[in-house]
Amino acid sequence: MVDDNATGGMTEYIRHHLTHLTLSFGPGGFWAVNVDSVIANLLISLLTIFALWWAARRATSGVPGKFQAAVEMLVEFVDDMVKDTFHGDNLFIAPLAITIFLVVLLENFMDILPVDLLPAGARAFGIEHLRVVATSDLNTTAGMAIGVFLLVQYVGITHKGPGLFVREWFTAPFHAHGKIAQVLLAPVNFIFRVIEEAVRPLSLSMRLFGNMYAGELIFLLIACFTLGAAMSHLSTYVLGVGQFIAGFLWTAFHYLIITLQAFIFMVLTIVYVGIAAERH
């Protein structure tokens, strides 16, 4: 059961919960920073780094504890996946992939918390709006996707050299042996390469954002079952039972979604980096 903290009913309640805590540095939305997403992202990233550091410091050669065993299983699983996809030095790629998976997973997991729990606590300190699911903010997912895009370009340059890296933009995917054919196909290859490179961060960001935003919205709709309900009405208890069942079923299904989305983001990152390192 939720508080009807918005007099406008269900529409106002949902709009209120989907509004970020923003800080504007100029006119227009471009200069607005979603502070809640930034803080949530930083805290979860620091928590992930600390947890992995703590596991590494307490690792033993004997019988591992449950946490160490879970970390070792994750490291071995991701390391094998990187070795199958990225044929090169994976001392940097494998730790990056593990970090991406854990950060995205924990950020997605914030969607499991009751929708009014943290916002109600924030209102006690005078904070009117608070959204803690950073991956339901397109700015966050786009930022991570742009980071992957820059990493892909860096790997391509370092593994192929600047000359071959630039030349592949004009000679792939359509190859030609004659000089005239190469010149004619160069603009076509360049256009296809630009589209290919642009689609990657777009698909990464929109897929993660769309799934998490939809999941957050469904939780809000479930919360609206008893929005403004009075304890003296029988319908409140009927809707409360329906709310509990719907919330339980969607939460169970959402565990699969948040894990799958984190896994997809990690796998696509590894695949894109592996493709960038290959010579075409």
Question: What would you note in describing this structure?
Answer:
The chain has one domain. Helices cover 71% and strands 2% of the residues. The chain contains 8 helices and 2 strands; from the N terminus they run αββααααααα. A hairpin with a 7-residue loop joins β1 and β2. The longest helix has 45 residues.
State the main characteristics:
280 residues; mainly alpha; two-stranded antiparallel sheet; 8 helices; globular
Tell me briefly what this model is.
The protein has eight helices and two strands, in the order H-E-E-H-H-H-H-H-H-H. It has 280 residues and is an all-alpha fold. It has one domain.
Q: What distance lies between the first and last C-alpha atoms, to the nearest angstrom?
A: 58 Å
Count of folded domains: 1
Helical content class: over 70%
Q: Tell me how many strands there are.
A: 2
The Rg value, from CA coordinates, equals: 23 Å
Q: Spans with pLDDT under 50 lasting ≥5 residues? A: none
> How do the helices and strands follow one another from N- to C-terminus?
HEEHHHHHHH
Query: What's the arrangement of strands in the largest beta sheet?
Result: 1-2
Total helices: the number is 8
* Broad shape: globular
Structural class: mainly alpha
Query: Mean pLDDT, as a whole number?
Result: 87
Biggest sheet, in brief?
2 strands, antiparallel
Oligomer: single chain
Q: Strand portion, in percent?
A: under 5%
